[in-house]
Amino acid sequence: MGSAMTIKPLIILPDPLLREVSKPVERIDSDALKLADDMLETMYDAPGIGLAAIQIGVPRRLLVIDVSKEGEEKTPLVVFNPVIVSSSDARSTYEEGCLSIPDYYAEVERPAAVTVNYVDRAGKEQVLEADGLLATCLQHEIDHLNGVLFIDHISRLKRDMVIRKFTKAAKGKL
Ligand code: NI
User: Fold this and answer.
1) In the predicted model, is pLDDT for residue 73 greater than 80?
2) Per the residue annotation, which of 26, 107, 125, 141 is the catalytic one?
3) How many CA atoms lie less than 13 Å away from 152 in the CB half-sphere?
4) Domain assignment present for 25
């Protein structure tokens, strides 16, 4: 019998945890796999297409992604300790959002294609060549592992506005 998956509360801007640099996952053991399953459950519930462990308060280099379209078969991707080993010169722009910055979207330009080395849930090293939405999503999630948010890629004016708005909202909840 498998352990039940748990939906975890999301860390929201301006929580300083979002600025932490996550540490490598040293062992792909049952705890690491449970964390990955909980992250998938949390991401699907939100719903979102990507989630980094720090977004549920765990500063480890782990992310989950599923860029399949609604109604299509799910394609969950569990990525431990990812490293971007090459990025294309060609760039692409997507409107990005983030489960830690709810209901805010902005266009972000990034390399259109990336090659990412990572460890899969079986503990095996993998090389992933990604383009399109998957490339953008990988870069967005890997940024989280380094304490970087997609709003760091937009104009300072817009970024300051978003941070002010979320800071005000957080204070209102105290
Ligand atoms: Ni995000």
Assistant:
1) yes
2) 141
3) 11
4) yes
